[in-house]
């Protein structure tokens, strides 16, 4: 198992650092091999789970090992892994062009989204990237979900969402209720934070880009504050650097 993990990690590294047809095929093959091996373990664990004298702790471990929702049919599994791989490929290989310059996601577009302030340029990058990758992904993504659901149902889950929830949150039937409660707890802070960021951005754009119309409906345009910026906001974003909440 450890050797297989190691081989799989190597194949993953190869495809992520050097995407070629060859590394991609190898990665797909390794994913299938890993899945077959996980399946064996899961099925053994399912058998063992039926024993009635298990300790609670043992039962829990077996339940975790029994987690498996990949399609059983090898061809369907291969189709799933190929679809996943194709999706990653679109994301990794997507580029934008402007004035003869090529923008890859890394590092050019990420850097631009971090440093650029001109709302038109940011909008070009944000929309362009989504059109370039998202549109191509749409059909494949739906195909992937279909195959994931198929595998989940074969493994006696109601669908992939059900399988995913059970794999991430073992024995937590009250999960949705917990999320509701957590959200209620953090949402007042989230709303204040959102309002604060919105105010800062609005001040900034009113001052520096007087022609730009900042929305008045309480939203923040995604291209002015993309996910990357939010993640780094506390440390580096110019609008938030001197935030005092
Ligand atoms: C990239 O992968 C190919 C195989 O498709 C290999 O021949 C080549 O040496 C690899 N390049 C690097 C830099 O690892």
UniProtKB/TrEMBL annotation:
<dbReference type="InterPro" id="IPR001548">
    <property type="entry name" value="Peptidase_M2"/>
</dbReference>
<dbReference type="GO" id="GO:0004180">
    <property type="term" value="F:carboxypeptidase activity"/>
</dbReference>
<feature type="glycosylation site" description="N-linked (GlcNAc...) asparagine">
    <location>
        <position position="18"/>
    </location>
</feature>
<keyword id="KW-0378">Hydrolase</keyword>
<keyword id="KW-0732">Signal</keyword>
<keyword id="KW-0325">Glycoprotein</keyword>
<keyword id="KW-1015">Disulfide bond</keyword>
<dbReference type="GO" id="GO:0016020">
    <property type="term" value="C:membrane"/>
</dbReference>
<dbReference type="GO" id="GO:0008241">
    <property type="term" value="F:peptidyl-dipeptidase activity"/>
</dbReference>
<keyword id="KW-0645">Protease</keyword>
<dbReference type="GO" id="GO:0008237">
    <property type="term" value="F:metallopeptidase activity"/>
</dbReference>
<comment type="similarity">
    <text>Belongs to the peptidase M2 family.</text>
</comment>
<dbReference type="Pfam" id="PF01401">
    <property type="entry name" value="Peptidase_M2"/>
</dbReference>
<protein>
    <submittedName>
        <fullName>Peptidyl-dipeptidase A</fullName>
        <ecNumber>3.4.15.1</ecNumber>
    </submittedName>
</protein>
<dbReference type="GO" id="GO:0006508">
    <property type="term" value="P:proteolysis"/>
</dbReference>
<keyword id="KW-0121">Carboxypeptidase</keyword>
